[in-house]
Amino acid sequence: MRHACAMADGSWYDGDIDDVIVSEEQIKEKISDLAKQVADDYRAVESVLLVGVLKGAFMFMADFAREMGRHGHPVELEFMAVSSYGQRATSSGVVRILKDLDRDIAGRHVIVVEDIVDSGLTLSWLLRYLQSRSAASVEVVALLRKPDAIQVKVPVKYVGFDIPNEFVVGYGLDYAERYRELPYVGVLKSSVYVRA
Hints:
By secondary structure, this protein is of the alpha/beta class. The chain has 4 helices and 9 strands. The chain has helices at 24-41, 58-70, 121-131, 190-193, and strands at residues 17-22, 48-54, 75-85, 94-99, 109-117, 137-145, 158-162, 168-169, 185-188. The strands form 2 sheets. The protein has a 6-stranded mixed sheet with strand order 4-3-2-5-6-7. A 3-stranded antiparallel sheet has the order 1-9-8. β3 (75-85) and β4 form a beta hairpin. α1 (24-41) crosses α2 (58-70).
């Protein structure tokens, strides 16, 4: 899925990105498509509650919510922040809630907005948690998914792009809190995060 997309000339991050795998234009088109699909599926529901998973999903959630409005479907917004921790650098599936929902979701139709699904461990826990709070329904819309990294099968109804199992940044995704503001998704050069 690699694309020969030009990066902005002279930007501080250009030298850190190996490859653009999802361009800004592709992201815009896909979000419009996903929002139309979700709006059509929830046409009979008065309002859906979007639950964004901080921090990575904030850009996707903002653009997705705007597109839902353009497709004639009202949404409400909530945010959660969770942390997976353990002895490894990758997700352990042991989850700690850093910021919980600010409202009761009983009887609500909830759509979890995720930037990326990789192992599926944290998302699996989050879905069980939200279902335990008596939501009428819980579905997931994810901009990105890494099929080769999945350890736990998670029902993700709406997926933007399947991508390779590489270290990606941009459009909300970070490395050490940097690169979130990139308008595209790119592979970060290993020299940036691997020390000799």
